[in-house]
Amino acid sequence: MACLPSPAILVFICMLALVPLVHSVPFIVLHGIGDKCSSRGVAKFTELLSNWSGSQGYCVEIGDGGWDSWTMPLLEQTAIACEKVKNISELSEGYNIVGLSQGTVIGRGVVEWCDGAPPSEWFCILVDALVKLEVYSDYVQEHLAPSGYIKIPTDISGYLKGCKFLPKLNNEINNTRNSTYKERFSSLDNLVLIMFEQDTVLVPKETSWFGYFPDGAFDPILPAQETLLYTEDWIGLKILDEAGKVKFINVSGGHLQISQSDMKEYIVPYLEDQASIQMMRRETSSYEWLSSMWNFLLELVGFTEDQPLLRTMD
Fold first, then answer.
1. What pLDDT is stored for residue 146 in this prediction?
2. How far is CA 276 from the centre of its chain?
3. Cα–Cα distance for residue pair 72/143, rounded to 1 Å
4. Dihedrals φ, ψ of 284, to 5°?
5. Residue 11 CB partners (closer than 8 Å, separation 6+)
6. Which end of the chain is flanked by fewer CB atoms within 10 Å, N or C?
7. Could you tell me the sign of the dihedral formed by the alpha carbons of 250, 252, 255, 259, in that order?
8. Is 130 exposed, middle or buried (0-12, 13-18, 19+ CB in 10 A)?
9. In this structure, are residues 84 and 90 in contact, taking their beta carbons and an 8 Å threshold?
10. Using CA atoms, how far apart are residues 149 and 131, in angstroms rounded to an integer?
11. What share of the chain is helix, strand, coil (3-state, %, to 5)?
12. Which residues, 6 or more positions from 91, have their beta carbon under 8 angstroms from its beta carbon?
């Protein structure tokens, strides 16, 4: 979906644990733009994560999925996601969030604001025209969802004045900063940020790790730790990072082209039933100790476990 010439502050896949992982914690999946929960890719992605982790997964649909993900303002999409999450009783004790592309900024909105809890070619051309003309106008902001997270570094004043979603999400408007947003975000147990090395949708791809351009220029690309969002800690990212709770992961592939092996390595461990894992580790440790003692006793009497237990009679 390279039709969007959009420098955007977002990440691709992240787990936002709202409670300590001491029991089986369910998770929600927030799909990307132009997608929906019933699509084969999203459905399989959710199913695999659930099967591998042993935790129940729920894909949260917003409106009709595909079309609304393009045209519904992100504040409205976030409000809908918030209400749907609150109506899933299984999430009442806490949950993890797996956000895919645009779904991640909605996930951040759920964390910060929620109390209690591909298009056709002609459409790409239309989107390009709208973005180049009046991306921060009220009309585009209200009818084209991606305009809510486009940050043009050479038009910061226009962005802060007209962009309806990202400045609020980033808590970056000085006289309206909300300490509650920072408190909620910084209370996460883990934040896993996965960047795709060959991504051509996000500009720059380092936005996956909260990296971005400096105000006023398209060069250089600043790492997250050198951005104002981090140094002034508008949302608590610095707090999380200094506590060792932010994982910066780099994988091969294009936008959202995550392999099953990378899913297992970088996502599943944060969704698994931690209580069961600890029990298995204790049982494994006990078994290894007993096995070691048994081998020691066998060696004392001249046997080893490599010998067959049953012998044939001559």
1. 87
2. 24
3. 6
4. -65, -45
5. 99, 104, 193, 194, 195, 207, 208, 209, 210
6. C
7. negative
8. middle
9. no
10. 12
11. 50, 10, 45
12. 26, 28, 58, 85, 117
Q: Could you give the CA distance from residue 296 to residue 160 in angstroms, rounded to a whole number?
A: 71
What φ, ψ does residue 40 adopt, rounded to 5°? -60, -40
Backbone φ/ψ region at 30: left (φ over 0), alpha (ψ -120 to 50), beta: beta
* Residue with token string 């609020």: 168
% pLDDT > 70, the chain: 73
Q: What are phi and psi of 56, to 5 degrees?
A: -75, 135
What is the overall mean pLDDT for the chain?
Answer: 79
pTM for the model = 0.72
Ranges of beta strands (E only) in 49-202 are 57-59, 96-99, 191-196
**CB-CB contact of 74 with 148 (8 Å):** yes
pLDDT digits (tens, 9 = 90+) for 197-209: 998 888 899 999 9
Amino acid at residue number 15: M
Ordered strands of the 96-99 beta sheet? 57-59, 27-30, 96-99
Name the 3-class secondary structure at 106. helix
- At which residue do the structure tokens 């949708």 appear? 201
- How much of the chain exceeds pLDDT 90, in percent? 45
